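> call design_seq(struct)
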């Protein structure tokens, strides 16, 4: 498909994972590609580089981390630019947090920890780790709001909404939360983290992938010391105990606006399109 498109115009490939050069989504925590998948990728790049086009090929990655992965791969001969994913303006419009908690049947007495993913049981999404946390004593000092498939726990201090597509309910959930817990041990630039930040809800995550660009300690959240479960649990305990989330709402939303403003991002894409056409 890319070969054909390059016969007629410049091609800018938006990369959301490592598949185009590794035959898998991420370098770790993903199934190892079979020999056929690996050979197909090698063949694709061999053909592409042996038959240069008069039109340029370039790539856009949502994170600097993904950009670096590309630069150490088959993409090393091509321009790769980082442009973050945009968010709709309505995510940034404030809602009353107490009202959002009450609307979801949550208590106002304890902090709300939100965990959200399409499939929360995936190892790549930190499913096993999340399940352990939900069975730990942390549920004594906080209440958990769970969105996504794979976790069916429904207890007094654990409220599971399942998989939801309704954007109003989703936005209410972000505003109801005091902390977004993102237990994935590998990720690019997750939309759930961006959405949470845009609602002024700080994030606790592992120091992995593009998360280190989004979660700035004591500005938009907290990063665990390393990629071990114990580090994340310890960090979450300290955040809950110290109520660190109470002073980060404004700075978290400001960080999100700087990174995910749709008008700013549209201008960056337009600039790149114009530069590719002029070559």
């Amino acid at each position: 498909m890319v070969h054909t498109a390059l016969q007629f115009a410049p091609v800018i490939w938006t990369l959301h994972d490592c598949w185009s050069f590794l035959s898998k989504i991420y370098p770790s925590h993903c199934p190892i590609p079979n020999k056929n998948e690996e050979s197909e990728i090698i063949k694709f790049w061999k053909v592409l580089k042996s038959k240069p086009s008069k039109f340029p090929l370039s790539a856009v990655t949502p994170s600097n981390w993904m950009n670096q992965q590309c630069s150490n791969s088959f993409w090393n001969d091509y321009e790769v630019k980082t442009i973050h994913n945009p968010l709709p303006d309505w995510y940034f419009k404030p809602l009353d947090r107490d009202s959002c908690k009450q609307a979801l049947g949550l208590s106002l007495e304890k902090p709300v920890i939100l965990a959200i993913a399409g499939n929360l049981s995936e190892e790549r999404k930190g499913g096993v780790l999340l399940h352990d946390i939900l069975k730990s004593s942390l549920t004594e000092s906080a209440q958990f709001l769970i969105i996504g498939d794979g976790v069916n726990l429904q207890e007094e201090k654990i409220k599971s909404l399942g998989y939801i597509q309704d954007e109003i309910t989703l936005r209410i959930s972000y505003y109801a939360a005091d902390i977004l817990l993102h237990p994935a041990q590998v990720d690019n630039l997750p939309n759930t983290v961006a959405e949470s930040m845009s609602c002024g809800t700080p994030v606790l995550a592992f120091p992995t992938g593009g998360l280190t660009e989004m979660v700035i300690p004591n500005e938009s959240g907290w990063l665990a010391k390393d990629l071990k479960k114990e580090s994340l649990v310890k960090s979450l305990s300290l955040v809950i105990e110290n109520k660190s989330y109470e002073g980060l709402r404004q700075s978290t939303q400001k960080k999100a606006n700087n990174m995910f403003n749709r008008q700013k991002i549209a201008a960056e894409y337009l600039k790149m399109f114009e530069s590719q056409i002029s070559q």
